[in-house]
């Protein structure tokens, strides 16, 4: 008989001394219990004595942690996370050139100090004295020449001001003088002492922007307390035609602007709209806050004057103090406003002509008079641009200078004709910034 343990349906153990077999009665035999006890002891030592389902060893560890926490104070992490973005880089390239513009106009109703603190001004020293009302906007320094730096802002920010001050991004406040302003484009140029100017802005090409690209607006929303605020959005539309009004609410024409959903608020006027490269692609000028007669709230509809137009205007303002524009000296109307029956009977237009502007009156000083254009002629082209309406005529006309000779396409008595016209008439407030039916 082999002296090794065997399994034949019941547990049998061979006595090592006499080789006899002991029947332990199954798996609860002595040796199995010994193995179980050893394993149990090892488990208790490794995991702690379990009482009521909780480890005593774990309890001791928790008490030690609680004891340690009671002796320490909460601290910030010493891990320094460095975050950089394109918007941050763009902002750094221009932030020193963005300023707050404070315009002051005289108001003889109360003293400035009394008005500031809501007092009646009963003090004899203040009664009858002139106070100043302030309006605030934004601006951007775009040129530095010798000891002079030039700032572009909106005309409506400084219009009617007796005194203008510039608050620099570093806190210095400087007196500014108006070099020139233009109500048609709503742009103005100021000059300041260049002593504290360390950064100037550069202009990008607004014709190269794309709908959907990132746009950043910088300025002083609600005034200089929030100077150099940055907001982020996208270009919503490259060329949007909107109606322009003056401070009295009178329509002054139309403008082609960039639309963006970057937050623009009162005080942002005159500040830059920049691309992700930190270049100025527009000058923020206005936003929509309500829509039509319903007065519905509108969000994310701000507008900026395109940089290509800004550059052209500020160069003329800096050099001449004004903007010289050619004028046609006519009263006109969009063809869209003419009924189909009048187009055939009165204008005698062919059915293929569906857009243009109708000459309603030719002034005595109009350069079109010598070219033979008359009432009810329909202009469809000027220079190398198509004329579809008053807005496109304005763009085509203002692309030229006084003294230029341009080709005008028009229909007379239903027949297409062309004429070379020399632009000799200069636009003024009476024919460029009043009703949009005069050019």
Automatic annotation (TrEMBL):
Residues 126-137 have a biased composition (Low complexity). The chain crosses the membrane at residues 35-57. It holds the Pfam family Trypsin_2. Residues 1-26, 114-137 are annotated as: Disordered. Residues 326-414 form the PDZ domain. Keywords: Hydrolase, Membrane, Protease, Serine protease, Transmembrane, Transmembrane helix. InterPro entries: Chloro_Bact_Ser_Proteases, PDZ, PDZ_sf, Peptidase_S1_PA, Peptidase_S1_PA_chymotrypsin, Peptidase_S1C. Residues 1-15 have a biased composition (Basic and acidic residues). CDD domains: cpPDZ_BsHtra-like (cd06781). Belongs to the peptidase S1C family. This is Endopeptidase. It comes from Ligilactobacillus acidipiscis DSM 15836. The lineage of its organism: Bacteria, Bacillati, Bacillota, Bacilli, Lactobacillales.
């Amino acid at each position: 008989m082999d002296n090794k343990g065997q399994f034949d349906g019941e547990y049998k153990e061979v006595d090592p001394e006499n080789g006899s077999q002991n029947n332990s009665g199954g798996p609860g035999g002595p040796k199995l219990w010994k193995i179980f006890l050893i394993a149990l002891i090892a488990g208790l030592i490794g995991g702690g004595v379990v009482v009521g389902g909780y480890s005593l060893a774990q309890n001791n560890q928790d008490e030690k942690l609680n004891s340690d926490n009671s002796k320490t104070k909460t601290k910030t992490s010493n891990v320094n996370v460095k975050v950089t973005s394109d918007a941050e880089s763009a902002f750094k390239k221009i932030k020193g050139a963005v300023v707050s513009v404070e315009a002051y106009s005289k108001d003889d109703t109360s003293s400035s100090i009394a008005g500031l603190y809501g007092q009646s001004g009963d003090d004899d020293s203040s009664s009858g004295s002139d106070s100043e009302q302030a309006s605030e906007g934004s601006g951007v320094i775009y040129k530095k020449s010798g000891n002079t730096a030039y700032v572009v802002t909106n005309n409506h920010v400084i219009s009617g001001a007796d005194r203008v001050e510039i608050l620099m991004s570093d806190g210095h406040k400087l007196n500014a003088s108006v070099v020139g302003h233009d109500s048609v484009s709503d742009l103005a140029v100021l000059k300041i002492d260049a002593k504290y100017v360390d950064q100037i802005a550069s202009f990008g090409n607004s014709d190269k922007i794309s709908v959907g690209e990132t746009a950043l607006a910088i300025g002083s929303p609600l005034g200089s307390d929030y100077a150099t605020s940055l907001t982020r959005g996208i270009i919503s539309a490259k060329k949007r035609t909107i109606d322009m009004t003056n401070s009295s609410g009178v329509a002054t024409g139309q403008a082609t602007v960039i639309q963006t959903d970057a937050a623009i608020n009162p005080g942002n006027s005159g500040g830059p709209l920049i691309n992700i490269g930190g270049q100025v692609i527009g000058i923020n000028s206005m936003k929509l806050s309500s829509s039509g007669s319903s007065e519905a709230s509108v969000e994310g509809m701000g507008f900026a004057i395109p940089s290509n137009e800004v550059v052209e205007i500020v160069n003329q303002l800096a050099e001449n103090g004004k903007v010289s524009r050619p004028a046609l000296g006519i009263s006109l109307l969009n063809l869209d406003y003419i009924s189909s029956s009048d187009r055939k009977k009165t204008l005698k237009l062919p059915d293929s002509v569906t857009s243009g502007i109708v000459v309603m009156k030719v002034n005595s000083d109009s350069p079109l008079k010598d070219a033979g254009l008359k009432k009810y002629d329909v202009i469809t082209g000027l220079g190398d641009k198509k004329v579809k309406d008053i807005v496109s005529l304005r763009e085509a006309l203002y692309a030229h200078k006084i003294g230029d000779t341009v080709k005008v396409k028009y229909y007379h008595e239903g027949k297409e004709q062309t004429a070379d016209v020399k632009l000799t008439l200069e636009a003024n407030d009476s024919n460029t910034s009043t009703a949009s039916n005069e050019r």
